[in-house]
Write a structure and sequence with these properties.
With 242 residues, the protein is an alpha+beta fold. Helix content is 45%, strand content 9%. It has 8 helices and 6 strands, in the order H-H-H-H-H-H-H-E-E-E-E-H-E-E. The strands form 2 sheets. The protein has a 4-stranded mixed β-sheet. It has a two-stranded antiparallel sheet with strand order 5-6. Strand 3 and strand 4 form a beta hairpin. Helix 2 crosses helix 8.
Length: 242
């Protein structure tokens, strides 16, 4: 066990259970609904004699369609934000579908991804940690209130997430998730007076998310900015419940 877990009195059994809860929450709340909505929107586009499909064309084409088909496919704009992790749209959509199978993200490969067009995953494609973290940030962006300090419409990503090559000193809040390395992916949690380092490797991203949520629950009175993460709000903190 890393020293931070021990310092907080968190046992291995708790961490394992919370990691499992985290995987289930990501699958049920984000991955499966997004994968399902991709299919729904593609069916609507086909029904409206639109040959372009999500996962088959570039995001620039989808943005044009979203403007012209806003009444028939109102959720297309929302879906696109989940896909902006990479320009390799065909792969991203394929991988989201694969990760959404079941409710435990069993296909997850922390430092790689799935095969594509008959070849093994390589670093020109986003890894699974990168895809999942982007989808989590996008989900939280859509649930946090707009912040005039961050007019890009991404209140979580801009304030509570930081990634290399930016350094920890660039953080915009006292608490944030920090991606210190892309390949292999590595995540930490930056706090007001230091950094929560979690073990590198297969469970790193999940453990960083668990540490982030546990810190909010125990040190921030369950509040992320103005949003309560308990049952009366976004209901995420059950992930780290005893």
């Amino acid at each position: 066990m890393d020293s931070w877990w021990s310092k907080m009195g968190i046992k291995r059994d708790d961490l394992d259970r919370w990691t499992e809860n985290c995987r289930k929450w990501l699958a049920r709340t984000i991955l499966i609904p997004v994968a399902r909505e991709i299919e729904n929107v593609n069916a609507i586009l086909s029904k409206n004699s639109c040959p372009e499909q999500i996962g088959a064309v570039e995001l620039s084409v989808l943005r044009h369609i979203a403007k012209s088909k806003v009444q028939s496919a109102p959720t297309l704009g929302m879906i696109m934000t989940y896909l902006e992790v990479s320009s390799k749209q065909e792969y991203v959509v394929q991988r989201i579908r694969e990760l959404a199978e079941g409710d435990y993200i069993s296909a997850f490969r922390w430092n790689a991804g799935g095969s594509w067009k008959g070849r093994d995953w390589d670093q020109d494609l986003p890894n699974d940690s990168q895809i999942l973290m982007h989808m989590l940030c996008t989900y939280l962006d859509s649930h946090l209130p707009p912040n005039p300090r961050f007019p890009d419409g991404r209140p979580f990503s801009s304030q509570y997430f930081l990634k290399c090559p930016d350094k920890p000193e660039k953080k915009k809040a006292d608490l944030c998730i920090y991606q210190s390395s892309l390949n292999p992916p590595n995540y930490k949690v930056l706090i007001k007076d230091g950094c929560i380092e979690v073990h590198k490797g297969r469970y790193n991203m999940f453990h960083a998310l668990v540490a982030f949520l546990h810190y909010i629950k125990t040190k921030e009175k369950s509040m992320l900015g103005q949003i309560n993460l308990e049952l009366s709000g976004l209901n995420i903190l059950w992930v780290v419940s005893s």
